[in-house]
Amino acid sequence: MVEITTQVGAAAQPRAPLSRQRVLTTAVTLADAGGAEALSMRRIAQALGVVPMALYKHVANKNELLDGMIDVLVGEIDPPADDTDWKTTIRRRVLSARRMLLRHPWAPEVIESRMKARTTPTPVVLEYLDSMIGIFRAGGFSIELVHHAMHVMGSRLLGFSQELFEDSSDREPDADTIAPEEMAARYPHLTELAMAVAHDQESVVGSGCDDQSEFEFALDLTLDGLERLRGAI
Amino acid sequence: MVEITTQVGAAAQPRAPLSRQRVLTTAVTLADAGGAEALSMRRIAQALGVVPMALYKHVANKNELLDGMIDVLVGEIDPPADDTDWKTTIRRRVLSARRMLLRHPWAPEVIESRMKARTTPTPVVLEYLDSMIGIFRAGGFSIELVHHAMHVMGSRLLGFSQELFEDSSDREPDADTIAPEEMAARYPHLTELAMAVAHDQESVVGSGCDDQSEFEFALDLTLDGLERLRGAI
DNA sequence: ACCTGAACACCGTTCAAGT
DNA sequence: ACCTGAACACCGTTCAAGT
């Protein structure tokens, strides 16, 4: 009964042989479905129909697996266009990174935790950063200003500077829900802002705040600020 | 033997009675020393000389404990000055938040993970955000622009927009160290930048990149950009 | 009524015993 | 030589048994 899957072929190999790539993409799929907390060596192995120890032939340990997953994500970011100005190229690429991130909401947390620990980013990430720097340089930025620019862009380079709070659906149940009138009394400014935003978009069904255009607003404010400094620093 | 610590006093109570505050500050101290991964209910209990289950009288579960720890950190941010303009007030407060964060390097990861999950931020965080919004409003910002501003500031409000990579000391050992000449060949732009930064600060002993001034550069670029829009939006 | 030890259902990773 | 089951040292949390 247990042997059913392997006894058919002459070579007696599992249907699709395990590979680093297959381990990584399975892990990404698992995280997409269940979040970062659903990622365990044991569960990945189970999803692949394999004993947990089999994974250790393809990744040294869990941290290396997480690094590999980040590489998979960076690979999903569109390559730079080479037929337009620096600003458009950077803008498109960052927005592509953001789209990637929306497909993998667990990524910021994992990237955050891994960037704290690693000695050097993986070659894939280095290549990506190098390419970004190259775009600024080709656009006429001094190396000093490029350095500032990379810091200013910060995590936006990888598609996020985290929204302080995710949208309201899909949350843990809230223990201490507060009455709206008490909310308004205690946090008057927050309430004013929430009402203004809601009123602004009364036609839209959603959360009352368009994260995408807010992201673009921040991105453009930053890019415009950098452009103003180009040549001056 | 086991009874030694409790049999002395008449009331037979542990030396310092457990309290939510003591649980939280102990957890913060533990994380400061060992990072986010060192934070376990069992270890916190051990540090308090208590059985793990005793913690559950003061926090509902680990997530609520993490939220409580974030509240402790927000409490460390200096209150706003009220004798100066909006820009100085925001700037000082954000820099105070950043100093808090430098004392607690595990915080961004924890904040990131908790903000993904919670329904509503804790009252302490809400109060902090409300106060920030109030400063912008008092500075003559329209509610629409304040909304944009809060998004633009993003995680910088809590003292971080994460440095993509931490400084080089205190890292995991690096498996695949690369030869400098191969580094230069593969990542020319990255190398140019690294060299320029190193040369820039040859007098300084440290990592060759002043994170503090880079943070301030990004902060000021953002604040200046917002000021330019004040009144226009 | 209160407290808590043991237990449950998990982890990542090691390692020796099996083929 | 290769593979892997069992084991180790952990988790967060439940719950019944003890006082």
From TrEMBL, chains A, B:
The keyword Transcription regulation applies. Residues 40-59 bind DNA. Residues 17-77 form the HTH tetR-type domain. This is TetR/AcrR family transcriptional regulator C-terminal domain-containing protein. Pfam families: TetR_C_1, TetR_N. Keywords: DNA-binding, Transcription, Transcription regulation. InterPro entries: Homeodomain-like_sf (IPR009057), HTH-type_TetR-like_transc_reg (IPR050109), HTH_TetR (IPR001647), Repressor_TetR_C (IPR004111), Tet_transcr_reg_TetR-rel_C_sf (IPR036271). The keyword Transcription applies. It comes from the Bacteria.
